[in-house]
Amino acid sequence: MVPDLPPHWLHPPDIATARAAQAEMAARILPEDDLPDCIARLGGADVSNTRFDPAKRVHAALVTLDAATDAVLASSGESRKADFPYVPGYLGFREVPALRACWDRLSVRPDIILVDGQGMAHPRGLGLACHLGLVLGVPTIGVAKSRLVGEGEPGPDPGDATPLMWKGRCIGTALRTRRGARPLYVSVGHRVSLATATRLVLAVTRGRRLATPIRAAHDAANAARLQG
DNA sequence: GCGACAG
DNA sequence: ATCTTGTCGC
To answer: Which enzyme type, at the first EC level (predicted)?
Structure first.
């Protein structure tokens, strides 16, 4: 299980409290590599929603893949009612609680988790990936399919990358993973450097736009939704 | 006031 | 996020 945390880090009563919690958490993010010598297991995290769902449930999934073969080593899902609404900039408060439940039941733990969402490429430097990484105490990388804040357009070829700039600061990498496809926005989540994060994401692309662990997590989250 | 706005 | 088949292009 995960160590005890300030209640408002997971269940803030309102946006103002959530904002204050983000400031507390942002100060604890480690943006430097703190990884095992060899990354043997890659994690993927994603959450799916049901359209027009009056029950407001979220369906989270965490998967662990063998870094060498892409085989799924473990997978866990969690469906529950979200106790926080979707508000741009506060995604963690809606999705992290369910993902933490997934983590507690994940039989094989990954060395690092690729999260479907922003890391430090966030208005207050605390996107979903940072939030999850800090709560779990695990290295994470933010891998978003679109941008929240920042500017930067990479070249057309796979591997082309450019700094994602915001207010004069580099907050992430706009990364082209596939020709003709929109870029991915990679940023530091927790216990990893931007350079390592960018290199790792590109390495698990396999010629497609999305990173393999995230595709697997997306599939698992959808499976959790179709069941309960 | 207006436009932008991860999943 | 989600609703959805075929179709255009490399």
So the answer is: hydrolase
pLDDT in tens, A71-92: 999 999 999 999 999 999 999 9
Query: Dihedral through CA A139, CA A134, CA A182, CA A204, nearest 10?
Result: 20
| Closest by CA position to A93, among listed A54, A139, A47, A27 | A47
CB A143 under 7 Å to nucleic chain C = no
pTM more than 0.85: yes
Strand B neighbours (CB under 7 Å) are A 46-47, 49, 86, 88-92, 116-118, 122, 127-129, 142, 144-148
Rounded to an integer, what distance in angstroms lies between the CA atom of residue A141 and that of residue A197?
A: 6
Nucleotide nearest to A146 (CA to C1'): B6
Which structural domains are found in chain A, ordered by start? Answer: 7-227 (3.30.2170.10)
Hey, which bits of chain A come out as E strands?
Answer: 41-49, 57-66, 72-81, 112-115, 140-144, 161-166, 169-175, 184-190
Q: For chain A, how big is the Rg over CA atoms in Å?
A: 16
